[in-house]
Design a protein that fits this description.
Helix content is about 55%, strand content about 0%. The chain is globular and about 65 Å long. α2 packs parallel to α5, α11 packs across α12 and α11 runs parallel beside α13. A two-stranded antiparallel sheet has the order 1-2. The N and C termini lie far apart (about 65 Å). The protein folds into three domains: about 130 residues, no CATH class; about 140 residues, no CATH class; about 60 residues, no CATH class. It is mostly helical.
Amino acid sequence: MSNIVALRPAPRVADPETRIAALIAGFAQHRRCEEDVFWLKENAELLNILECTGTRARGWIGPQALLPHAELYAGAEARLAFFPQYYRFLLSIVLDLEDLGMPGDTAARMAESIAASGAPEAELSDLQRMEARRLLARRDLSGPDDPGLEDRLRGFCARPGTFALPNKKAAYELTHIVFYLSEYGRRDPALEPEALTSLQFAGHLAFLEQNSDLLAEVCIALRYAGAVPPALWTGWLSRETHLFHVGQDAQAPLQDGYHDFLVCNWHLALAGEEPFRKPLVPGGMRFERAGARIAPLRELSRALFAMKGGRCADWVVMRRRMEGALPPMVLDLLDLMARETAHFDAFFEGFARAGRA
């Protein structure tokens, strides 16, 4: 008696134009309804990535690809009038639609309306004020008069110690500041050397956590700042991106890894590879990373906390002291980081918190 092995051919990967059209339709029509603010968020993120990675210039946006957004585009001004609190999402979507090939000048009128309303002046966050300024500038309008805004944002970036400790909110704000200051890679963000160190520190933490979403954003920000991300990080990100699974399930829960999928492919595009090489077809899609792995960051934090007064800021010394407390896989990863990435010793000095036992 012989065993019969069924061979399942890999799903066909369509051409880029077909894949991009499927992505746009999937997010526009098959995940959430337009009245959901998370619909605005998801579609703004996708369209922004398609615009800033030159999808139109590559010829990957066909004449039918933007049709799922035709109704929203036609009613965008009325929607802005009724939902002014979402002006950044709405203006971003309309700007990107036009820059991706949607005919019309709605974005300019919306930008003028937003500037006249004073909505950007009501923002409490410097990061959101910078985002509003950048959006208005895309149609040659200036935001509120705030000459110290960019200096304050650069000052936030130039504090590496902030980013040597786990703080995802601060890390994501760091990357977005670089996105806005650089106009998504279109100009020099004029960062201080300390800000580049901050990005390295944030990347170390993301890599230790095996957080491909945050690490991809850090690597994108480094590229926009004119720096080269470590090959250790970019190689790992490339593998993680290719391991993503895209399932066709319109009834699946919406809490998936869509954002991780988008930013990993954004990074892939900036690295010169072809993004979104998955069997993407029109309809509901669910985006899932490969299976969960051990989190070296958690293991390292536990071992350091347990040492109390035995902590010191020297990685070489601490490696010997923690050898029995950490799994070999974690030690191997830390050794690799120490050899192949910049500023690891300085990062570990801050992360160890040796003076706070």
